[in-house]
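User: Please predict the structure of the protein below. I'd like the answer in structure-token form so I can feed it into my own downstream comparison script.

Assistant: Understood. Taking the following sequence of 222 residues as input:
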Amino acid sequence: MAELDRTSNRLVFKLVYYGPALSGKTTNLISLHDRLVPSRRGEIMMFDTREDRTLFFDLLPIGWRAPSGLLIKFKVYTVPGQVAHDSTRKAVLSRADGVCFVADSRSSQSINNAESFRNLEENAMRVGLDLERLPIVIQFNKRDLPDVTSEEELRQRWSQAPWPLVMASALEGRGVEETLGRLLESVCLGADRRYRLREEHGCSPEGLSAAILGRAGNHAHG
């Protein structure tokens, strides 16, 4: 979890995109990276394994400086989807401040989605994360394909879940920024409660998430 380093006056958050193999985690990060203005993203990095890839990039490579002088940064990761790389999944998930679960919308993938979410629950417990408190966004990706489960049915299935659902097509760029925006808002609200961002650092959670996505100029303050 993020910790405030008072010596360097820095706060760094870790966001993780989790989900089954080929659900579109990599496409999400690449699409998101392409849509962010250069000043708000670093170079995308890739670690190849035999059958899968782990990617990450700095969302705020230089960082955003709050009025108090606090430097705020985010790192965004994907986990490998293949079951064979579960140890890598746990390592990437460790100390996450927020998770986007990327599900495959195709009707044929419902079992894979469920198994992957159970894996997320198990690995979260193993690395000491509490899913009841961890900011999570569920993204149903690949909405551009013809054989997808209807949005109505998906929302009915997940109606008891406390997390926001976003319908997306990462390949077309639809829902990608909304997914990150929802996750950032939740993470920043939690950080405000823990680190008193607004009160001690002059930084509102809503304004910070908007500024990161380039939706606001100077509204991160106040």
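That's the full token string. The chain is about 35% helix and 20% strand.
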